[in-house]
Every structure is written in structure tokens, then in C-alpha cells.
Write a structure and sequence with these properties.
Bound molecules: deoxyuridine-5'-triphosphate
Oligomer: single chain
Family: Belongs to the dUTPase family.
Number of strands: 2
Number of domains: 1
CATH architecture: Distorted Sandwich
Structural class: little secondary structure
Catalytic activity: dUTP + H2O = dUMP + diphosphate + H(+)
EC number: 3.6.1.23
Order of helices and strands: HEE
Radius of gyration: 20 Å
CATH class: Mainly Beta
CATH superfamily: Deoxyuridine triphosphatase (dUTPase)
Distance between the termini: 28 Å
Strand content: 5-15%
GO biological process, one term: dUMP biosynthetic process
Number of helices: 1
Pfam family, one: dUTPase
Strand order of the largest sheet: 1-2
CATH topology: Deoxyuridine 5'-Triphosphate Nucleotidohydrolase, Chain A
Shape: flat
Length: 85
């Protein structure tokens, strides 16, 4: 996850917006940094650029169906289909 301070004050954000570490990943943790400001920025040793949030992983099982038994309020409405407010 990004840190709000560096992003807001210096334009230093994560290149991938949010980094996802796979639960079976065994390599070094990498942080993709992007300076979206016009000003050069030098990270200092021990300066914090990201924060790690550890969450439980749900191993979901999917069941394929041809039709839903009941229609839901959302139905097939996708991006922006519920309006702005
Ligand atoms: O900010 C990040 C994002 C990813 N990773 C590591 C852990 C993760 O498990 C692996 C692969 O990341 P991801 O699955 O997001 O990469 P991808 O672009 O989907 O490609 P691929 O899965 O083929 O590697 O890289 C990091 O260290 N930091």
C-alpha cells in the first residue's frame, strides 16, 4: 500500500498503485516507485515509502451456473450503472 504523506506532499506513489504479494511468493519484497511530480526526489535511508498490510487469503471455490436462481438488485449492471449519488 502507498503512504499518503509522500504521495500528497512529494508526488511519490507506487508504480503499480497497490502491490500484491502472492501468498506463495518466495523472492525479495519489491516496491515500485513513481515520481509523478516535476521535481527530483531522493529517498533517504530508512525513509518509509510503503506500508505492508497482511490479510487472510480466502481460497474461494467457484461454481459455474447457466442462470441465477433469483435476479439481484444489481443484476448485470456494470461500471457506473447505479448513478453518481
Ligand atoms: O509491489 C510488489 C508487487 C509484486 N511483488 C512481487 C510479489 C508478487 O507475488 C510477485 C508478482 O507480482 P504480480 O503477481 O502482481 O505480478 P504480475 O505483473 O501479475 O506478473 P506475474 O504474476 O507473471 O509475475 O512480485 C513485489 O515484491 N512487490
Amino acid at each position: 500500500m502507498p503512504r499518503s504523506g509522500l504521495g500528497h506532499k512529494n508526488g511519490i506513489v507506487l508504480g503499480n498503485l497497490v502491490g500484491l504479494i502472492d501468498s506463495d511468493y518466495q523472492g525479495p519484497l519489491m516496491v515500485s516507485c513513481w515520481n509523478r511530480s516535476q521535481t527530483e526526489f531522493t529517498m533517504q535511508p530508512m525513509e518509509r515509502m510503503a506500508q505492508l498490510v497482511i490479510v487472510p487469503v480466502v481460497q474461494a471455490k467457484f461454481r459455474l451456473v447457466n442462470d441465477f436462481v433469483e435476479s439481484s438488485e444489481r443484476g448485470e449492471g456494470g461500471f457506473g450503472s447505479t448513478g453518481k449519488h
